[in-house]
Amino acid sequence: MKRTILFLCTGNYYRSRFAEELFNHLALERGLNWRATSRALAIEKGKWNIGPISPHARIALQQRSIPLAEPLRDPIGCCEGDLVSAARIIAMKEAEHRPYIIERHPAWADRVEYWHVHDLDRASADAALGDIEAKVRELVESIGADSTCDS
User: How far apart are alpha carbons 110 and 84 in whole angstroms?
Assistant: First the structure.
């Protein structure tokens, strides 16, 4: 059974969805026994999100020749089961997401790894998605290195 990484952001529309798709693409290429999923910590905050995934994320994935399986799912809110089933949990930005985790899933606040990737209000899509790409690639390399040690 594949181990799961859970990527979290506010609306499960932009940053976490890009991280999920990129991770799954790279993990498949490397033959890793891991998969990613993603969820929203405050899905109600994404009420202005149009469609299942941000156009910024879609375009960035297309630019990297990463296909999206159609039909795309809509954003999904995080529930306790998502946290329990994940081997690793990564929230996109600590200052933004730790308060939601403390409010909605307090027992998990210190079990989450926090990155520092700004949303569109503080960074361009190219900068934010570039940061996510670098972090996801580093994560895949780390998991790949750990997997070879287990062999």
Answer: 14
In whole angstroms, what is the distance from residue 121 CA to residue 143 CA?
A: 31
Among 83, 73, 11, 20, residue whose Cα is nearest residue 40: 11
- Using DSSP's 3-state secondary structure scheme, residue 45 falls into helix
Answer yes or no: are the C-beta atoms of 4 and 87 closer than 8 Å. yes
Dihedral, 55, 9, 112, 71 alpha carbons, nearest 10:
-50
pLDDT-flagged residues of the chain (< 70): 147-151
**Cross-strand pairs, 34:** 3
C-alpha neighbours within 13 Å on the C-beta side of residue 116: 1
Of the candidates 93, 128, 94, the residue with the CA atom closest to the CA atom of residue 18: 128
Query: What's the predicted TM-score (pTM) here?
Result: 0.94
